[in-house]
Specification:
2 copies of one chain form a homodimer. The first copy, chain A, has 12 helices and 12 strands. In chain A, strands 2-1-3-4-5-11 form a 6-stranded parallel beta sheet, with helices on both faces. The first copy, chain A, has a 6-stranded mixed beta sheet with strand order 7-6-8-9-10-12, sandwiched between helices. The model of chain A has no long low-confidence stretch (mean pLDDT 92). Chain A folds into 3 domains: 30 residues, no CATH class; 131 residues, Response regulator (Rossmann fold, 3-Layer(aba) Sandwich), CATH 3.40.50; 135 residues, 3-Layer(aba) Sandwich (Rossmann fold). Chain A is elongated. Chain A is 42% helix and 16% strand. In chain A, α10 packs parallel to α11. Chain B binds a DNA duplex through α2 and α4.
DNA sequence: TCATTCTTCCAAACCGCTTTGAATCAGAAG
DNA sequence: CTTCTGATTCAAAGCGGTTTGGAAGAATGA
């Protein structure tokens, strides 16, 4: 059923029917009701492609999720982020277009989005340090919001980010306050912006108290269970092991916990652990009483915020950059405790 | 840059330019080359909305991801499935449209996809027992492929599925052969089709050897780490605990392993564990030498297959149902071993 | 040489909707 | 009884492509 057919069935012109359905004022209430009733009865729904060809608006948002070259890892937080964004889109009648694009083809992907006219705006995922995509998108001239930030030039584009630096600073300070002096950081890949900021927070907390942080206790890599396990095992096996660990994700934490157990130690007593919890729906941190002490910030909420911001930007037409910085909560769980009493192995009295 | 502008710049008609670019034969090689060069130079790309309005093909596939009511869980395997499907789409110039739709609004979502004309086909995720979506989609008359199956009437629609029954049958038989007689099944929600088939396989393996299976060792629920842990803890705490466990996912397995350790037992010696491994990119099963013995089937590959099948169906125009059943490999890991010698507690000799 | 057949290109219609500019009609004002 | 105004409605021109039905020119055959 097309508009034209509906119009004919009603004995009206397409113009009037279109206006009646789209809420324009120059239609009498009587005919509007008649048209709406008929549309309902016939199950008429406007063809989006025709409509957006006519209006110039695609009514769709593109998400380009990068597939890192080499390791073909799909970041598991996308699922929840997208769920959050999707909620917002469907409320506003927008569609969500996703393309998973290898690192090398990103530039082409954005230009295609623009020139093919298939989206009104773009969400940029997983920015790196000095990400070239941002200047690319600005030159392409399509509205976009970055989930996260590229490390420099924060002022000139729109973003939604979690305050990674502050979260890790607080977590680190909390451990320092508990007396820990050798704290390990198990981080994501440090070409990712979020990982850089987290490390900076980790270091800043030490600096603020005039305490040392140790390069050999800072590791970064793909955030898998295995990686968390292996690095923890290595570090706990040393002469001078850490008494606490800060980790960038829940999945890492699971491997870390395993390594702690395998070393015959108890988490929260022998080794403290704070993680960042993205509040993923399929990896809950134990519900009411959290297993891990964590800095928590819902990535699904971030998705909602980013989507809302992008739709606002598109609706307003203004390209004044906006930004939103979400603060993480520090959630107390069972994985942290005071630093164990210092046992000097080498010089017993 | 539009087709018309390009045509004018070349001194040709839009017709000829369109034909030159789309490979129609009624254009001389000389002009075709000229047109292609100019298109390249101007960076011309056809507007997809206009094109698909004219051709009637949307060049997009819709994925409707159900959001179960109540528990707002986003199934983590979607990320990998979609990555696989996305590969295929982008190779064929298709876009991927995703909408995350609450259970209750599924019907409306499909009808909208159809009537709005925004997709040429649909992938159906996470079918339930007797899923109504299938008959709905058939009546709507839009090509679709189901990832999985609805439990009955297998013949009349297209699907790609993993052989859940066979995989769990083999895994169970393997444990029975190792001498295990009390085997637990920690399954996904048993209103999901895949969970039903897995349970059937579990039971069939017992039946085939004339052995009993125990209802109190079969549990099902949301597949979280916590659920795996809690149910395992409960079962190991009983008078007559299982000596082996079969679990439906990697995430469950992580919780199960934790509970085994907490019970002071060793996985692979005191308690054997076989899991199903979807081969998720962010949850690898230990690489070269697998941690868990597992039935493995890549969900990303399933995504590729489903997408390929759907594009084929669309291209062929035939609505003859097709299907593809993927077999899981049985991967030997460190989590299984012979059943521990039967220690009779009550009647020592 | 002239009719015939390809080749190659083009004008115009169309896809389904929105939107501009104008037409129609009823009631108010003069 | 005109004229004007405001409220409704409509015809037609896009939006940017594809596709049908010729038309012009070149090549072929008699």
């Amino acid at each position: 059923m097309t508009l034209k057919e509906l119009a004919k069935a009603l004995g009206l012109s397409p113009t009037t029917v279109s206006r009646a359905l789209n809420g324009f004022p120059e239609v009498s209430d009587a005919t509007r009701r008649k048209v709406q009733a008929a549309a309902e009865a016939y199950g008429y729904r406007p063809n989006m492609r025709a409509r957006s060809l006519a209006t110039g608006r695609a009514m769709a948002i593109g998400h380009v999720i990068p597939l890192a070259s080499g390791h073909e890892m799909v970041n598991p937080v996308f699922a929840d982020f997208i769920a959050g964004a999707g909620e917002v889109y469907s409320k506003s009648g927008y569609d969500m277009l996703i393309s998973i694009v290898p690192e090398a083809e990103q530039a082409r992907a954005y230009e295609e989005f623009k020139s093919k006219g298939s989206v009104d705006g773009i969400i940029v995922h997983a920015p790196r340090e000095g990400d070239r995509r941002i200047s690319l998108l600005k030159s392409v001239g399509i509205p976009f919001v970055v989930h996260g930030r590229a490390s420099e030039s924060d002022e000139s584009y729109s973003w939604v980010d979690m305050n990674n630096l502050r979260a890790f600073q607080r977590a680190t300070a909390f451990l320092l306050d508990l007396g820990h002096r050798r704290i390990a950081l198990i981080n994501g890949l440090e070409n990712m912006d979020f990982a850089i900021r987290r490390r900076a927070g980790f270091e800043a907390a030490h600096d603020a108290q005039g305490l040392r942080h140790f390069d050999d206790l800072k590791v970064s890599g793909e955030m898998t269970e295995q990686f968390g396990h292996d690095r923890t095992r290595d570090m706990l096996g040393r002469d001078d092991p850490p008494t606490a660990i800060i980790a960038s994700s829940m999945i890492l934490a699971i491997g870390i916990r395993r390594a702690i157990r395998e070393a015959g130690l108890e988490m929260g007593r022998d080794v403290s652990l704070i993680i960042h919890d993205d509040d993923l729906s399929y990896l809950p941190n134990g519900g009411d009483d959290p297993i891990f002490t964590a800095t928590r910030s819902s990535v699904r909420e971030a998705g909602r915020r980013a989507a809302t911001m992008l739709l606002d930007i598109i609706a307003s037409g203004s390209d004044a950059p906006r930004s939103e910085l979400l603060e993480a909560e520090l959630i107390l769980g069972q994985s942290t405790g005071p630093a164990p009493a210092q046992v000097s192995i080498t010089e017993p009295t």
